[in-house]
């Protein structure tokens, strides 16, 4: 199998040490396998994405010593393709419009769920038809119908990351209560969500190995479900550990002190950054 992986940042803020680890690890693994490392810009969130953050991504990654084939894929150049995929799902009766805000979803939840920081969408708008869609509505995937469309088969994939390595399997009964019907079409401008766009692009770019942080682990089953719906291949997933600050907190884009650009502007070398994230 040809080894193709990608680093897929969203240009919504500065890259930090956690991104450096993700990009370096993916680049190292591709090199070790004689494979290809791609950079993909995930800017479907047109409100938060900025050209200056995109430019900084290129500068940061080049400074770290990474290279990638050009032209790269920028998702905002592909919105029509994602819209076409949404239309396919809508024609199959798998999508419905949803006008619920985050506050509505929290309020509808009877008790906070343990370990679930984000309230699970309770399905308030599930009965709505696509014809009732109003500007500003999101589009959600009806998970029950989606599982019926794939013959209720379990979702299977292979994980090679340090935690939960091995064959993975999830069924509708497990996934539906944990995830709730996910948003595939965003409220704002109704463009595709991360979940849909990244799944379609992993297939388009023939990604064999998705290497990314463990914070994205929970998206995997939904991505495999979308792969089944569109009859796309399933890559191997490798979720790596997260880089944390001294207090054990996961780094965030707001955390400028750990931004690659801050190290770049100071005395640190790319080799220092590799050491800081535990790569030799
Ligand atoms: N664009 C996503 C992010 O910046 C990463 C997507 C992925 O690796 O699947 O968090």
From TrEMBL:
SUPFAM superfamilies: Nucleotidylyl transferase. GO terms for cellular component: cytosol. Keywords: Aminoacyl-tRNA synthetase, ATP-binding, Ligase, Metal-binding, Nucleotide-binding, Protein biosynthesis, Zinc. Pfam families: tRNA-synt_1c. GO terms for biological process: glutamyl-tRNA aminoacylation. Belongs to the class-I aminoacyl-tRNA synthetase family. This is tRNA glutamyl-Q(34) synthetase GluQRS.
